[in-house]
Write a structure and sequence with these properties.
Helix 2 runs parallel beside helix 3 and helix 6 crosses helix 7. By secondary structure, this protein is of the alpha/beta class. The termini are close together. The chain has two domains: 116 residues, 3-Layer(aba) Sandwich (Rossmann fold); 95 residues, Arc Repressor Mutant, subunit A (Orthogonal Bundle). Strands 2-1-3-4-5 form a five-stranded parallel beta sheet, sandwiched between helices. A four-stranded antiparallel beta sheet has the order 6-7-8-9, with no helix packed on it. Strands 10-12-11 form a three-stranded antiparallel beta sheet.
């Protein structure tokens, strides 16, 4: 069973489709989140400015203020994490959202377990989850985030700090494509020398050290970790 969110974690859902807005709100409430709803981009922006949540889930296609513009406005007002909900699965749409400052994205119609995983990943990056959730397993590999230790059975796998951060990024996006641009921002930050090919090089090293086929290449876009 997935771990609960931090007590009182407030989530704002900005979605003009009433059915999706209400069903997403019900899902997150059932899993312990404090949920607020906004029926469009302008209403969402007003809530962010007057009563900021801890996380915002923002639909891209809204008529009054689109999700990408809203994301930019949110990021101008502070460092509020944003997860985009999008019916568009073209890499260019996702890249535009990430370039606007979004922390993650989920494609509609979304799988509930995927959205909840994305929520936990954002909460983890904010430092609010139970430390027992720091140990994760896939393909016979055990990753202890707190101890920064990776093992396969009794064998310790030595990773560089960069490789470990890249592995964390893949784990946080398990089952979802991690774009090269997203990996660059997450792992290398503002280092101007970093180019997308550095992601490919480190993925190759990570695969070799972990001896796993769970890290899949998604042509023309990025990588996906196939893990529970």
């Amino acid at each position: 069973m997935p771990p609960p969110p931090p007590a009182g974690l407030r989530v704002l859902i900005v979605e003009d489709d009433a059915d999706i807005r209400e069903s997403t709100g019900m899902l997150l409430r059932r899993h312990g989140y404090d949920v607020r709803l906004a029926d469009g981009g302008r209403a969402g922006l007003e809530q962010v400015l007057t009563d900021p949540p801890d996380i915002a889930i923002v639909d891209i296609a809204m008529p009054d203020l689109d999700g990408i513009t809203l994301t930019r406005r949110i990021k101008e007002s502070g460092d509020l994490p944003v997860i985009l909900l999008t019916a568009r699965d073209l890499p260019s749409d996702v890249v535009h959202g990430l370039d606007a400052g979004a922390d993650d994205y989920v494609t509609k119609p979304y799988d509930a377990t995927v959205l909840l995983a994305r929520m936990r990943a954002v909460a983890r990056r904010r430092g609010g989850t139970d430390p027992t959730d720091d140990v994760e397993r896939f393909d016979g590999i055990v990753v202890d985030r707190a101890a920064r230790r990776v093992t396969r059975g009794e064998e310790a796998i030595s990773l560089t700090s960069t490789e470990f951060r890249l592995l964390e990024a893949l784990l946080d996006n398990a089952g979802i494509v991690l774009s090269r641009a997203q990996a660059l921002r997450r792992v290398w930050g503002d280092e101007e020398w970093a180019e997308e090919r550095v992601v490919d090089t480190n993925i190759q090293r990570l695969r070799a050290k972990l001896r796993t086929d769970a890290i899949q290449t998604v042509r023309g876009f990025g990588y996906r970790l196939d893990a529970p």
